[in-house]
Amino acid sequence: MIFFVVVTVVIVGGCAAASWWWVTSRLGESESTAVYDIEEAADFCATRLPDEVNERLDREQLNWLLGLHLSFLRRAGMATYGGVDEVAMDAGVGGETVVAHEDEAVDYVFRQVVAAGDPTPIVDVVVVIDLSNRYLAAIGAFGPSVDLADEES
């Protein structure tokens, strides 16, 4: 009887050790994921907005501009809305380095602002995107910077 208890303990312990090893080795090889919280991002940006921009933007506009910036990053393949996000997956597959320039983000967001008929000036868009990029860097969402001159060579 004791023999069967010992064998059972060894088998269960071996399965537990193998499971632990498998999970930790998979986690060690996978990239970490940064979670973008729009309210936290808005708080981060709101406390750093220059006074003149803060006077023109309310919280709803700030959240909208941050959402547009996130939409740009998603279309560029640098962000996902979670789960199976086909737009982000299509943009991000191929194994190539994904690069999105800040000027492209400003152009995209400002085009959306103009299309919506919103009177937000471009300087406000630039400030919000800069602060959004700082927030993304603070949560570890950006990888290393890429020198575009090296990429074109």
Would you give an account of this structure?
The termini are far apart. The chain has 8 helices and no strands. The longest helix has 28 residues, at 2-29. Helix 2 (38-46) crosses helix 4 (59-75), helix 2 (38-46) packs across helix 7 and helix 4 (59-75) crosses helix 7. It is mostly helical and 153 residues long.
Topology readout:
Layout (H helix, E strand, L loop, with lengths): L1 H28 L8 H9 L4 H6 L2 H17 L10 H7 L9 H14 L6 H17 L9 H5 L1
Helix pairs in contact: 2-4, 2-7, 4-6, 4-7, 6-7
Rounded to the nearest angstrom, the distance between the terminal CA atoms is 72 Å
Average pLDDT score: 83
Q: How are helices and strands ordered from N to C? A: HHHHHHHH
Q: What is the total tally of β strands?
A: 0
Sheet of most strands:
none
What oligomeric state best describes the polypeptide chains here? single chain
How much of the residues is beta strand, in percent?
under 5%
The number of helical runs is: 8
Radius of gyration over C-alpha positions, nearest whole angstrom: 23 Å
Structural class: mainly alpha
Low confidence ranges: none
Relative helix content: 55-70%
Shape: elongated
